[in-house]
Specification:
This protein has ten helices and twelve strands. By secondary structure, the chain is α/β, with parallel strands linked by helices. The chain has two domains: 219 residues, Rossmann fold (3-Layer(aba) Sandwich); 42 residues, no CATH class.
């Protein structure tokens, strides 16, 4: 396992912010950590990254306890924060070459060749620009490139596509899928973009009030809640709408009775957002 967390607890003074958090992640898995603000996501990630000491529990990241990890271990992980420090006077290529040089002593496959990395994040045409001249979306791509430059085995992504237009977001999703599938990079994603989590994640953890309240694939989570399907159709000139807990037998019976007379059929099932809100609100209430 790339990540093993057992009984993780964190206390600030008299306040517990993480309660017996446990989960695992394997090589090449994309794991999304979802939760409202204040749920404990950032604290969890900081402990995994080795930037915060835990109060109790067992944590192993790439076979090492992050609390005592060395620089060689750090070279094996990548971090994409919500914003990077400003290097406005650096040119994009120069900055990536400079960052990459820190990884060279830790393996022949590190760092990622700059030309390949620029192409992967869509910054080839901007390689000679100074960072301060980049647009917001381009700066975000540079943040991602800095996180990837060491060719990490484990990548932490915090709201990675903030500022991306739809085309850039799709390209980034393809990049993440390729990293996981082709290079077996394990990816831990935190995001408030639930469609993004549903598209990218193999598994989702929902954390609220310091506890994991649900875990599973996007499909597992959406089918775990009891919520009606919205079925809409027309027969002739008449429109119909029904709220049905299981739409499949209803639709089968509908076609068995009316056949081709059924037109404009729409079936809306619960989404990941519906499941997320039901689970989080259930705990908070």
């Amino acid at each position: 396992m790339v990540l093993t967390v057992e009984g993780l607890r964190m206390r600030y003074g008299d306040t517990d912010v993480l309660h017996e958090v446990s989960f695992q992640a394997r090589a090449g898995e994309v794991l999304a950590l979802l939760g409202p603000n204040g749920a404990g996501k950032s604290t969890t990630i900081e402990i995994l990254e080795g930037f915060r000491l835990r109060s109790a529990g067992r944590v192993e990241v790439l076979g090492v306890d992050p609390a005592g990890a060395d620089e060689r271990w750090r070279a094996r992980i990548g971090i994409v924060l919500q914003s990077w420090r400003d290097h406005g006077n650096w040119r994009v290529r120069e900055l990536l070459e400079h960052q990459g040089a820190y990884y060279a002593p830790y393996g022949a496959d590190r760092p990622w060749p700059v030309d390949d990395l620029l192409a992967a994040v869509g910054l080839t045409a901007s390689a000679r620009q100074k960072v301060r001249t980049l647009s917001g979306g381009q700066r975000r791509r540079l943040d991602v490139a800095i996180g990837l430059v060491g060719r990490p085995e484990l990548l932490f992504l915090d709201e990675p596509t903030t500022g991306f237009d739809p085309a850039a977001r799709r390209e980034f999703h393809d990049l993440i899928a390729g990293l996981a599938a082709d290079q077996q990079t394990t990816i831990l994603l935190t995001t408030h973009d639930l469609p993004e989590a549903a598209r990218l994640a193999d598994r989702i953890l929902i954390l609220t009030a310091g506890r994991i309240v649900a875990t599973g694939t996007p499909t597992d989570l959406t089918t775990s809640i009891t919520a009606p399907h919205d079925v809409r159709y027309t027969l002739g000139v008449q429109q119909f709408q029904h709220q049905i807990l299981d739409s499949t037998p209803f639709v089968q019976a509908l076609f068995a009775q009316h056949g081709d007379a059924v037109q404009n059929l729409e079936v809306h099932r619960p989404t990941l957002e519906d499941a997320y809100l039901a689970l989080v609100n259930g705990v908070q209430s």
